[in-house]
Amino acid sequence: MKTIRLTAAQALVRYCAAQLNEDGVPFLAGAWAIFGHGNVAGMGEALHAAGDAFPTWRAHNEQGMANAAIAYAKALNRKRAMMVTTSIGPGALNLVTSCALAHVNRLPVLFVPGDVFANRAPDPVLQQLEDFGDGTVSVNDAFRPLSRYFDRIMRPEQLLTALPRAFATMTDPADCGPVTLAFCQDVQAEACDYPAAFFAPKEWHRRRPRPGLREIKVAADAIRGAKRPLIIAGGGVHYAEAAAALTSFAEKHNIPVGETQAGKSAMPWDHPLNLGSVGVTGSSATNAVAEAADVVIGLGTRLQDFTTGSWALFRNEDRRIVSINVAPYDTHKHNALPVVADARLALEELTALLGGHRAPDIDAGLKPGWIEAVDEVTAAPTGNAKPTDMQVIGAVQRGVAEDAIVVCAAGGLPGELHKLWKAARANGYHLEYGFSTMGYEIAGGLGVKMAHPDREVVVMVGDGSYMMLNSELATSVMLGQKIIVVLLDNRGYGCINRLQIACGGASFNNLIDTARHVVPSSIDFAAHAAAMGAGSEKVGSIAELEAALGRARESDKSYVVVIDTDPMPTTDAGGAWWDVAVPEVSDREEVRAARARYETARDLQRVAD
């Protein structure tokens, strides 16, 4: 048997570079790395030697670079991914939030944090956690419940089994998610005679499971018998590359479609059967159909509470759920009729069984009425009041290319964007709302731009999220990956402030000006962005914003436009109840009234049907 003598780190990098996706291109586009004593000698040397065959990018924050890697995979529908490596200790733990983010969103990423010495000779090493009752524990054990696959590499030859398992996980449609290989720092530098065949190029083809004959027939019978069916398109539509199949299916069988945050842009916004967003941040059109639907067809969605209105949205007493998903775990939620299958293949087989069946027409006025409401709240204001989030969204929509990709993650903006953004092309809407991670936005925008260098990427972010994690703006400038950032400054956590008040509470500790302080906060965001090398300016009106967006588009580097906004208004049209528990006991009359409303709304929940 021919062998190659390599360090464990060199072997890991060589193997990763040789793994291809079904299109014959490297599945891993390269590595993000912040080096420390736990990975600089071993992984650092191996990555340097790989050069352009497995490129390495430097970032400013471990969580930021991990978010960029995850956004890259999401933007490419999980067909490609990236590796992320850090030192041990705080560098590794800075990845934990991102690992959870990838797990919740079922997105592939390879985490390779450094770990303690396997030989334990110098214990305790710098940054090592010492568990008084368990000598095998390191901080990387925090990744165990957050990873789809976890392994600790304590001998060089363990890579022979760990790496194939890692790639099998990342390329599996049902098990897809983050993989963590905690890499002991002494082992990284140890040599081993690896079989040469281990490094031969290998293509990983995504499985497309076909539905079981009984499952698909039961689903087809339910759809055929429905008088008011509704499709809910989730992120699985994108990952299965089933957007065209969805449009064809909906058209042939006359079934309206609502979109989740992850599923939005699966159909063009102006398609007559695309009724828009669904659920807590849903359109009035989709939610009206959802309330009356007798068959709800979940297509690639995990049916989280924002989609289902905390399971109070679907009010038809006779309604049934057909759940089509590659993950069996998702198909059985709420006693659904399960179809474990690839979304595209399931639609193709369903349409063959349904033949010429067409569902009854829905109210023709629902969608036009919703679009009228959207256009009203996103129109440019006529007065001098501070603009709303909705008006800023309208300005951005008018000010960027039709095929632009909008990126956002947390706060009030995701809800408004879900309702109001008009996505014309598939993957034109990139929201991380599975984990709703504040600070994802700018790093995520960088990852999206790396995935789609030919498309305009516009990041919409509030001042709260910007302050949490903005350092990868400098990385985007350094790498020549231009993004446009629209920063809405409402001086605090405006979304949670509104929720606090809606639950009967007083405005408390959310807005900067009413939080405890000695010196009033005054942050020059435009100057801050400029200090990181980006073009920037602050504007005072929607008209100025639209003009600034023109300058941002012409810029050859990342560009930040800052605008002050009103923290209170939201879109009144659309929406659904969301279960946020209100205290049963309070001295505040407002809280007691909110509790009474909460109990009334909770009666609509159908938790175990």
TrEMBL record:
Top-rank taxon:
Bacteria
Q: Which family does it belong to?
A: Belongs to the TPP enzyme family.
Q: Which SUPFAM superfamilies match?
A: DHS-like NAD/FAD-binding domain, Thiamin diphosphate-binding fold (THDP-binding)
Q: Which UniProt keywords apply?
A: Hydrolase, Thiamine pyrophosphate, Transferase
A Pfam family it matches:
TPP_enzyme_N
Q: Which GO terms describe its molecular function?
A: 3D-(3,5/4)-trihydroxycyclohexane-1,2-dione hydrolase activity; acetolactate synthase activity; flavin adenine dinucleotide binding; magnesium ion binding; thiamine pyrophosphate binding
Put simply, this protein is called 3D-(3,5/4)-trihydroxycyclohexane-1,2-dione acylhydrolase (Decyclizing)
What's its EC? Answer: 3.7.1.22
Sequence ranges assigned to domain Thiamine pyrophosphate enzyme N-terminal TPP-binding in this UniProt record? 47-127
Q: Name one GO biological process term.
A: L-valine biosynthetic process
Report the source organism: Amaricoccus macauensis
Keyword Transferase annotated = yes
Fetch the InterPro entries from UniProt: DHS-like_NAD/FAD-binding_dom, Myo_inos_IolD, THDP-binding, Thiamin_PyroP_enz_cen_dom, Thiamin_PyroP_enz_TPP-bd_dom, TPP-bd_CS, TPP_enz, TPP_enzyme_TPP-bd
